[in-house]
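Researcher: Structure for this, please.
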Amino acid sequence: MKDIMDTKTHSTSWIAQSWISFFFAITATTLGLFYIPLNNWARGYLAVSVAFTVSSTIGVSKTTRDLHEARKLTAKVEEARVERLLSDHHPLK
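Model: Predicted structure, token format:
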């Protein structure tokens, strides 16, 4: 049987790669906004759009993680409930 406290963690290299790619994408987008041949209003619009996209992505990823963790907790509670019912059940009583 699987241990209830069994959790999977990310490797250090995966975490580093995720942060490096995030900062590279933000830096490339910022440089692109700086050098694009548009007036300041259009640049501002694009910059706000990028900021909104980044904040929305963070919100969606946090919500997805929270839902996943809530399902795991619910599954653990249900498993504990079933184990208790099975341990309390005496077929010869």
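Researcher: Any notable elements?
Model: Residues 12-88 form one domain. Residues 21 and 27 are 10 Å apart (CA to CA).
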